[in-house]
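Supplementary Methods, section 5.1.

A reviewer requested that the exact input to the structure prediction be made available. We therefore reproduce it here, unchanged from the version used in the analyses.
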Amino acid sequence: MSVLVTGSIAIDHVMVFRDRFRNHILPDKVHMLNVSFHVPSLRKSWGGCGGNIAYNLKRIGGDPVLLGTVGEDFAEYADWLDRNGVSRDCIRVLEGTWTAQAYITTDLDDNQITAFHSGAMDRAHEARIADVSDPLDVAIVSPNAKRAMQEYARELKARGVRIVVDPGQALTQFGCDDLRELIDGADVFVVNDYEWSLSRERAGWDADEIVAKVGAVVVTQGERGSRVLQDGREIEVEPVVAARVVDPTGCGDAYRAGLLHGLARGAELADACRMGSLMGSLKVEVEGPQGLTLDAAAIADRHQAEFGAPLP
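The structure derived from this sequence is encoded token-by-token as follows.
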């Protein structure tokens, strides 16, 4: 069975300003800001939540079906996916558009200034669930254009596919009624600590009401691990400590990949979250959102060493 991954597909341009923004931005002049930062280093990375999840899911031995839209500049990214065995059969190339692009400048204090061009992602709904013919065991609705997220969630629920709803940074697009519809009927709702508070405020439901609307809620907490709210219980899932911290970019997407792999293999939700923690930790140890090079066997060895149990 396959895992359907819906979410943004983007190209990231990461630049490092080898100074501090605060040394060059005058607080009393921000109303007339005009600055230019010299950035001697530039890294182009293949990214987007959907692309990152699918890549990491493939590394762990999964079978992702990536659904999304891209622009005419997708050739290099397409070649990357081909070399890593990620199917492009359900990716739709839209003429006259650019693939979504993020331009991120980081200073020496790890402050960031980001510009995001949504490009083809704005028409993500044109890549349709109806065009996916593969038998699906589980699917994720991850950050994407709002209309696509809404339509994907509706169609997957109607199709009877187990669905993980993880709105991430797209959560702010949803008002009360839209968020309630997105949540209601999902099998797993995934949010971080801040998003969990925002979800309750936006939906006007308390924690118990949201849990009652879905099968379970997973609250990720970064280096503190995650929590599973299910069947009236709260389970603490311990973090996996990275051997070294190189680059946290894409850590959440790697977590999502591990979670999906566990669910597709029939693991209990807490065990699937542990797989997510492992994948997030492995991602932190390498540069770039799709920088993990370990194969499924090596990841299985790390899982055995960490948890004393084989990878599901």
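Residues 70 and 120 are 5 Å apart (CA to CA). These observations are discussed further in the main text.
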